[in-house]
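Give me the fold.
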Amino acid sequence: MSLAVQVPRFALVGIAVTALHTVLATLLITVWGRHPVAANAIAFTAATLASSLANTLWTFGHRPQQRSLARFFGVSLAGLVLTVILSGSAEAMGLPFYVGLGAVVCVVPFASFVMHRRWTYRPG
């Protein structure tokens, strides 16, 4: 599948799972009385599973396999680490939080896409 097809699909999946995370966390907190940290952990897990399935089948056109699922979660963990490094670095430099957030929003999705394309869904 071409890059011109994969990039917008990856972006749409990202938007959809972000919405899923937001709605689920909000419901867990406001309707079911869950603690915000627990609610976000549950919502993150649900969004990551949905992202894995949607990106595997639709963005990259693969069948779900144990190897690609493990790699997908490895890339997700790398994205979390990169998020902490970027936001923590901005904070350590005394910059406003939105500078770190901007770095995360600009860098992490791009890095995740590249890692998925070159590693998670690499043929062979």
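The chain has a mean pLDDT of 93.
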